[in-house]
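Need tokens for this chain, all 275 residues.
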Amino acid sequence: MKKSDYRNTYHRLVTEANLEKIKQILNKQGYYDTNTVEQIKYEEKDNLSYYILNVDSTKYIGQGAYAMLDGIFVEINSIIRQWEGIFYLPIMIIRKVTSENLKPYINPDMHKIHELIHLQYIIDHINKNPDYIEEARIYNAGSCSYADIKKSIKFELTKLFFNELPAFVADFENGERDYYLYSDGMASVAASDNKDEYVQYNLAQYIAKLRAAYISRFPDKTKEISDYIADEVNKQGKEIFGYINTMEKLAIVLFKFMFLAERYGKHFKLEECHI
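Here are the structure tokens for all 275 residues:
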């Protein structure tokens, strides 16, 4: 089976019958700890099957996040012998909202829908672009070499625009209006009824976090990284939005909502977001 058959392989692999075999593979390859692997379950929605892990801590999920797709590279030959090479297996992680103050602002069902949109787009993208799997291993922001920094930035921003952008649009269309700001030990929550600005703010937040991730790894290359990101955002943004300077547009929206969130948003101590 060729790697271009990713979609078909995914649906053959991700079944309830294969769950225990997948757990064995994850344990053998050292993903998560044994107790965590045991908590992985199988679910299906609208003919889209997936494995899901429900957690109540931030151990496997980022700051302020309550849902994510964790892309895992696994050997699946013991289950699908025809597949050649490493397989990219997305596992959905959902974090329980334990803070009573935050529960009114966190909609677990909407977070799951957001990640299911990601899942559908990533399946389609890999099916059309089978090299994505190897590129994700080499160029992801967490492990790329500085020699590959430009390729990594292009990879991560391409992923942002083909995968995150449609999900942000869907969030708004499904009724999401809240946006979040984390600063100085506080979490601020405010709302927006402007679709374009809502989407642009979330894109800007994503880009800001991506920039911070690169700089934390290459602190002596801050200017170069910032310039490379701006150039790539402007290049891809012009094709998508038609803006001459997408980076500037997103920065304006980001600072606007940072100001509004700090001044008019609901505020919580950061530890309330992580308990």
